[in-house]
Amino acid sequence: MKRSVFWVVVLTLIFALVVAPGLFSQIKQDPASKLDRISGVVQSIDKKTMTIVVRETGTANLDYHVVYTADTAFTYRNTKSTLDEVKIDRRVICLGKADGATKLNAERIDIRDK
């Protein structure tokens, strides 16, 4: 009996810490532009696939794949910038169209700090 109670507690904790946050997280919509919005910290940049992995800040800590194109606008605190300013561990705000639960086709990527 004690062993089954132990496993119920362990499985409940695993679910609460690992699975549950992902169920409640979703790409939010920016009210001003009506575009989908992801805010977080850059984890990796792949120039070959034109993808930036952004970890959402907050409780869920989910990774999103942000795909950029030649038409994607890069800004640093709302002034014109380039992809070269996007670096690992920098906070960014990405606006675009969601493509599934963890992918965003970016129209604009704003770098928030250096």
Distance between the termini: 56 Å
CATH superfamily: Copper binding periplasmic protein CusF
CATH architecture descriptor text: Beta Barrel
Q: What is the count of DSSP helices, taking H or I runs of 4+ residues? A: 1
Q: Report on the biggest sheet.
A: 5 strands, mixed, barrel
Average the pLDDT over all residues and give the rounded result: 84
CATH third-tier fold name: OB fold (Dihydrolipoamide Acetyltransferase, E2P)
Principal-axis shape equals elongated
Offer a few descriptive terms.
1 helix; alpha+beta; five-stranded mixed barrel; 41% strand; single chain; 114 residues; OB fold (Dihydrolipoamide Acetyltransferase, E2P)
Q: Please, could you describe this protein's structure?
A:
- The protein is of the alpha+beta class and about 110 residues long.
- It has a single domain, classed as Copper binding periplasmic protein CusF (OB fold (Dihydrolipoamide Acetyltransferase, E2P), Beta Barrel).
- It is about 20% helix and about 40% strand.
- The chain contains one helix and eight strands, in the order αββββββββ.
- It has one helix at about 1-25; strands at about 30, 35-45, 50-55, 65, 75, 80, 90-100, 105-110.
- It has a five-stranded mixed β-barrel.
- The longest helix has 23 residues, at about 1-25.
- The chain is elongated.
- The N and C termini lie far apart (about 55 Å).
- Residues about 20-25 have low confidence and may be disordered.
